[in-house]
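Collaborator request, handled under Task 6.
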Amino acid sequence: MWMNKILFYSLNIVLSGFAIYLFISYFDIFFIRKQRNKISIIGYIVFIIWGFMVSSYYLFPVYINISVATIIVLILTIIVYSGGFWNKCIFSVSFNTIFMLIETLIGYIFVICFDKTIDYELYQILGSLISKIIFLMIILVLRRVFVNEKIKELYFKYNVIFVLLPVGSIYIMNTIFLIGIQSKDSSIYLQSAISAIILLIMNVLIFYIYMKLADDLLLRQMNSVYEQQLELCERHQQEREMSMLQIRDAKHNMKNNLISVLAYAENGDCKKIIEFVNEVVDEGKIMISSVANSGNIVIDSLIGYWDMIAKKKGIDFSVHIQVPMMMPFKGADICLILGNLLENAVEATEKISEKKYIKIHIKYDKSNLLVFVSNSYEGDLIKTKDKKLKSTKADAKNHGIGLSSVQRVAHKYHGIVTIEDSTPKQFRIRVLLYGSEE
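Structure tokens returned to the collaborator:
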């Protein structure tokens, strides 16, 4: 008898270790692992111990077991992986929900097929093993579907919904299970098994729906960038057309102006000459920002726009640009990076009382683009727990899009984003993009 117990406990320990493998395989699809440390090892040990206790002993009601298991998975996810808290909540709850639904489904299949002809401990070990194998197959499918996907943040209301869906599935499935246990009708078992299959499919489809919503959010953000780019380019083009009209008018009036100057000169009226020349100069002024004339319409229009905004707010705006007309980077990406950096710089600089300045250095060399922005600021930067800057905008999701999108674009071109705030009252950010060699 004691040999059977030792074998039973040993197999449960092995299956708990298998559950750790499933945990890692599942969350590796959606998150990036942190460097291994002692806390993560302790978390794995706690996970194995809890899995062993639940499978070997029935110390707590099912809801407590599910709740504790979900909390342990969430804490372990926070320790082991990088990413947003709500994302981890969603995928932790889904992990436990799918696990529970598969185990419940296998339990119904065993009851329908074997009834009470199989030993209980063997029934438990086989059920746990088959459940984990099926879960592994689902994980392999998810890995193939989301091979190149990156988890994105959603709105808070969507995060709550995606947490409530698997929680509701757990409650419904447990209620169906209790009804099935109280009723000894075999048809109830079959209907309960079908219900478990439907709930399992729904919870697996949550991943697809989540990704589609995240892609839709990203698309709306990018549309906002394109709209901003088109608006700036249109304004820039209008300014260029206006300047060309002014130059054409100046050329057209040049002969008449020279005749007038000649007449005043013949009469020796120097004062009249000076007054007339000043009038001509004032009328011929081209009222556009000449701070950026690189020929690159995206960069010139953005710099020109924020130069005018900065001057209205009393900010010293200095620019040094060395870029060609054409570069191996999409205009929308340049617009997103530069527009976001300049918007943040202006918003931060206008809040201080003195020494308001923004310095911009943009250089293109050997297919690589460096964007460097430094500005004065006061106060402390708000950072998240993973030491990333947190947006202070009221609508940070849609307005300005945020530094996270700047980092995403930089990653797209295998580049880097470096933030420096070590110098008092000065904020500096560098974005380096690597283009293909021409």
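The cover message to the collaborator said: "The first strand starts at residue 32 and ends at 33. Residues 102 and 288 are 67 Å apart (CA to CA). Please let us know whether this matches your experimental observations."
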